Every structure is written in structure tokens, then in C-alpha cells.
Amino acid sequence: MSVFHFEVRDLPPEGEAFREEVRAFLRQAMGDRPSVRRARSWGGFDPDFSKKLGARGWIGLTWPKRYGGQERSFLERYVLLEELLAAGAPAGAHWVAERQSGPLLLRFGTEAQRERFLPSIVRGETYFAIGMSEPDSGSDLASIRTRAVPKDGGYVVNGTKVWTSNAHRCQYAIALFRTAVVPDKKHEGLSQFLVDLKSPGIAIRPIIDLAGSHHFNEVVFQDAFVPEDMRVGGEGDGWKQVTTELAFERSGPERYLSSIALILELIHHVGPDPEPRAAEAVGRLVAQLTTLRQMSLSVAGMLQAGQNPNLEAAVVKDVGTTFEQSVPELVHALMDIEPTIDSGSDLQQTLGYLVQRAPSFSLRGGTREVLRGIIARGLGLR
Amino acid sequence: MSELGSLLADTVTRLFNNLVTKELIESAEKGVWPDKLWRALEEGGLTLPLVPESRGGAGGAWSDAHVVVRAAGKHAAPVPLAETIVAGWLLGEAALEVPLGPLTIAPVEGDEPLRLTRAGGGGWKVSGTASRVPWGGAAAHVVVVAEGDGGPMVALVARGAARVVSDRNLALEPRDTLVFDGAPVVAAAAAGRRIGVDAVILYGALVRAAQMAGALESLLEQSARYATERRQFGRPIGNFQAIQHNLALLAGHTAAAGMAAQHAFDVADHTDPRRAVAAAKVRCGEAAGLGAGIAHQVHGAIGFTYEHSLHFSTRRLWSWRAEFGSESRWAQALGRAAAARGAEHLWADLTAR
């Protein structure tokens, strides 16, 4: 039994040339942005930055040229992503559109949908939110109840979505609704829709996170109308669609680099000649980073080769998010410093930001418990 | 994987499945040299994957040797196969002939340098003490890396040239002290270009990392199987979510250890693998401790008995994580190097090939 397949993958030479191009751009675009802002990473929502990336053709890098893409390889996109994340670039505005919505339309959308949405995503102008979770449906996603009922060339939608990141700043959402109630078969009767968030009948209310930030929203649909041509794929295809591309979402560098700003700040803080305990702590972090990067790259290689490494992706996300969460812990254990918000050193503020952010790392995009269930199934236990 | 790598993987797996039985490991733990196993490994061409074909080896790369070393760890093969592979490589790099028979390497401790000095008749002799040398008394030859004539040299020393003080590790593998007192050297030459005076520790750590990754694979397989077979409360214990999640955690550590080790072997084919080896030894060592803990917890009391085979892997992991440098030692080295380079170089260094 060798359940998991991780092989060393080399990036193609064109990827390494591209890396230098991306670094040069980021040096200029990021300037001397402080560590605590870099720590926000893809949590940072910055339309100007997204448009700058778009102007370079760096959004939708792998997409067909007829929609404005570059038709470059998935591994080159990987290089771009890891450079953006390592630099703490504010890539959040276009993140979901580039990672999930665009690929969804390329795979399941109509030609008209692709022509309408992809070019402006590529330009860094159109942003998407994701409407999946509901007040009573978190990990048990298939239990959602928001109904889309056919009427007059479209659907009338009623229900509530929650944890909808950036819905207040995005023009559109891809949302999962129940188009049919199939008794005892909750995975059936689900469909995904492109939703114009400015439509009548949609109310977006903030949900403030524990640190006082507004990125989550509650999105309430009250007799909101969604035209039929905004449905993605066939009626009832929603579950298949949401589970198809999970490997892309779960194995990327964003699943192990969320605390990189704190690691860099720690190294800066301990100086060039650290005492043994600090040196050991830094060394353990570097060992984990080295390993996780190879694991994440290995899955990227499998995706590039057209394989479906869902199990390996779940492993990367579980190991990676555990590592991300360990970094603030380690800084606490090593340093006699207090995490802060407005005062103190860069290290204190970066710690203050990440220690409050870290609980979300093993919740977003599939909880640790869900992932471990998937891994256990791969081991033949379920 | 290369064609040679696949061939080696098939051969070594078949051979270990047939020959490395519980009885064989138990007899090795009593001090019996598993001669049949060793001869089969030599006849199968598995002992010298890195030695050029012109010198009787397989002419492979570290990434090919990786599969053999990992399999040796997975099967708890009670022979110095990993040590022979490193020794053969060191000899080959120094353009020295590689003798048949089991080889070992010294010194394995950082603070025990050996010295090579000229003997009469153009030869060399070696002096100093090397402790915890794997199969130091049983190996036909020991390959020594030491300061010699203006730089590191590789020397071949035959069994019997050193005084041997026997000892063993937790897995009852021989870890002997060799006392060289102007001991005669069979052959010596300037070390290859890629070989520093601490090469034995560096490449020893490399192979121990892969052995640990292999042993972790074995823990995962044994534990997942046991969880589907053992029934309590009317169902297999693997049905319980607490067990499932612990095994998923073990799977994560196993995957990470395997990746870290494989990466270090891969880097060794291209450049100085020091950082990748340090990362692998640290990551595999962490996985060893956590993985052994989970495997024993899943197995319950039966896994704590000598009768059960689980301890062949766990006792090795507990020793191997400390051999050729502990996690703390390698982590300190890695951390000092990263700190000296500074935060601004960390990412570029991590992504450099």
C-alpha cells in the first residue's frame, strides 16, 4: 500500500526566468511595505494592485488567449503565486476569480459566460466572491437550503449565505443553490450560479471578525432573480462542480505560506548570529518550509500532468496549515514579547496580526477535520 | 524515477519481502550476521548503486540510491546497506577501488576527527577514536574521511586494523567504537571535489533521513491495517473518528518525511545538499517521534510487546533520529545559516536550484 504519491518535481526553466520577472515587478510594486501589511497577503484587497498584475497578463496566466489569457503552464502560474505570497502582495481582490471562478467557467461555463466574464477578470477589474456556506451548513455543505426556483427565464432565489468574503467589494459571486429537493439525496439538486451582487433582492451585511476587520459578509437573498443564462452547467451539476477542482484550492502555496511574514520578521529580529535556541527555532521553520514547498510543488506537477491528486492535496493542506499555525506559537515560546496592534516593533505587530488570524487557517476551504476524514478514507478506514 | 531507479526499487522490494523476516531481524538482534541477506543484496547489485559501472557498481545517481535506502528503512533490514552505499560513493569519488563485502563509514560524531599520516613505503596510517560506528566490528572495511595531505582524504581500512569496543543502539544494531592507533590503511586518496571533511556525517544524515521515511511508511501501513482488523465495541477501531484522525496525522508526517528525504537525495545529484540534508534530518526526526507515538497508540498494548513487529520500526526511528546529528543539531546549523544570510535572502535561497 502506497497511498500517497509525492515525487520531486522540477520547475521548467521558463518558470525560473519568469520568477525573476515577477520579483523585479514586486520589488517595485511593494516598496518598503511594513511586515504587518505584508502579513495580510491574499487577505489584502487592492484593486489597483490587481489591475497592475492584469496589465502584465499575470491574471489567468494559463487561460486561453481568446479570453485574454497567456496559455502558459500551470507550473509558471505556481511560480507567480508563490512569489506573490512570499512577498506578501495584496492579491486578494482577484484571488477567487482567478483561482476558482475563471477555471470553473472554463470547465463548465457557456461560451457566452466565458466571453462575458473572463476578459475582465484577466484585466484585474472583475472580482468574485463565493457563496457556499449558510447559517446551518458549514462543513456539511451539501445540506444547504437556499432555494433557486425556476420562473420566467430564470430563477427566484431565497435564503442566506454566510462567511462570504469580500461580497461587499466584489461585483459577482459564484453561489451554490438548491434547484431541486431530492429526498434523502442531499448532494443532488444543487446548481451553481453567477450572481450579480448588485441585483435587487440581495442584501449584503458585514460580519466583523474577532480582530474587528470586515471581510466576511452575510448575503441575504429575498426573491432575488437570477437569469437562466447565469447558471453554470446543467441543473443539478453543482456538487460535481464544487468537488472537481478542490485539489487546486487545497495544495497551493497559500496553504503553507500564510505566516511567512512572521518567519522573515523573526529572522530579522534574531540577527545574523542568533543564540542556539533561536537558531534551532529558525532552523526548524526552514526545514518545514523546505519540505512543504516540495510537497506543494509535487501536487502542482501532478495537476500539470492532468492527474487528480485530491488525497495529496488534502495532505498538503493539513500539514501546511498546521505549520502556519505553529509559527506564532513558536514565536511566543521563543520571545519575551507581547503581540500588539498599534504599537511595538514590526515583530510584535506582525505577531499580533497573525496570532489573531491563525485560527482561520485550518477552517477556510475545508476544516482540518474534513481533510483528515478525506485522508482517512484514502487509508481505507472509511 | 529513472529506469535504473525503478529496476532497483522492484529488485530491493522483492528481495526484502522474501528475506527480511521477523525471525531474521530477531536473530540479527542476537548478534548473528545475516550473511544470506547480504549476499543476496550484493548479487542483486543493490549495494553499490553510486559506484561507476567500471568499478563494479550500478553507475546510478543519488535519486536512484534513494529507493534502496528507503526500502532498507521500511523493511528494517538489519545490515549496513545505507552505510555501504555511502562508503562506496566516497571511494568512487576518490577514484579508489571498491571492495566487496559490507562497508561502514567513520567518524560519525562531529567532535571526533581522525588523522591520516604518512607511513613508511608511501602508504598512510590512521589514528584517533570513532565511536558509534554502525557495524564497526562486522563490516569488512571501514571508509574513513579525515584531514590528510592538505585537505580531506578518503581512506579504506580493513577489519581488524582497529581495536573494537562493541555497543549497540536501541534497535540492537551494532554501534561500535573503533580505536585506530596508527592503523594501516589499504588505500587512500584525496577526497573528491564534492567531499568535505564532514562528508560522513552529512551523507550519513542523508541516508538516515530516507531510512526514517521508509520506517514511517511501514508504521503507517501496519497501523492502518491493524485499525481495520482490530475490533472493539463491535466494530473495527478504524471506524472511530479519533483513530482516523490520528492516522491521518501519521499519514501527513509520513508524506512530509518522504518528501524531505527524497528532495535531499535529488539535490545531492545537482549541488551541495547541505541545507536540504539538514531540512530532511530535522523533518524526518520530528516525524519519527510523533509517528512512533501515534503508531503505538493505535496498536494498544499488543504493539508494546516484543512479540509484535511494530517495535522493529519504532526502535529504529528513536535511534536514527539522533544518529549522524540530532534534529536540534541540524536545526541549529540550518538556522544559523539562514540567520547569517538574513531574512532578505531566505526566500531566494529556498527557491534556488
The CATH topology of the largest domain in chain A comes to: Butyryl-CoA Dehydrogenase, subunit A, domain 3
Structure summary, number of beta strands of chain A:
8
Unreliable spans of chain B: none
CATH architecture of the largest domain in chain A: Up-down Bundle
Spell out the CATH superfamily of the largest domain in chain A.
Butyryl-CoA Dehydrogenase, subunit A, domain 3
The low-confidence runs of chain A, each spanning 5 or more residues with pLDDT under 50, are none
* CATH architecture assignment of the largest domain in chain B: Up-down Bundle
Give your account of this protein's structure.
The complex is a heterodimer of chains A (382) and B (353). Chain A has helices spanning 13-30, 35-38, 47-55, 74-86, 92-108, 111-122, 238-244, 246-251, 260-270, 276-304, 310-334, 346-357, 368-378, and strands at 128-131, 147-151, 154-161, 172-178, 190-196, 202-208, 214-227, 231-232. By secondary structure, chain A is an alpha+beta fold. Chain A has three domains: 13-127, Butyryl-Coa Dehydrogenase, subunit A, domain 1 (Orthogonal Bundle), CATH 1.10.540; 130-236, Butyryl-CoA Dehydrogenase, subunit A, domain 2 (Beta Barrel); 242-378, Butyryl-CoA Dehydrogenase, subunit A, domain 3 (Up-down Bundle). In chain A, helix 1 (13-30) runs parallel beside helix 4 (74-86), helix 5 packs antiparallel against helix 6 (111-122) and helix 9 runs antiparallel to helix 10 (276-304). The mean pLDDT of chain A is 95. Chain B is α+β, with helices and mostly antiparallel strands and 353 residues long. The model of chain B has no long low-confidence stretch (mean pLDDT 96). In chain B, 51% of the residues lie in helices and 15% in strands. The relative contact order of chain B is 0.11. Chain B is globular. A four-stranded mixed beta sheet of chain B has the order 1-4-5-8, covered by helices on one side. A four-stranded antiparallel beta sheet of chain B has the order 2-3-7-6, with no helix packed on it. Chain B has helices at residues 3-19, 22-29, 35-43, 62-74, 81-93, 199-229, 241-268, 274-299, 310-320, 327-341, 343-351, and strands at 103-106, 115-118, 124-134, 141-147, 152-158, 163-165, 175-184, 187-190, 231-232, 235-236. At the A-B interface, helix 9, helix 10, helix 11 and helix 13 of A face helix 6, helix 7, helix 8, helix 10 and helix 11 of B.
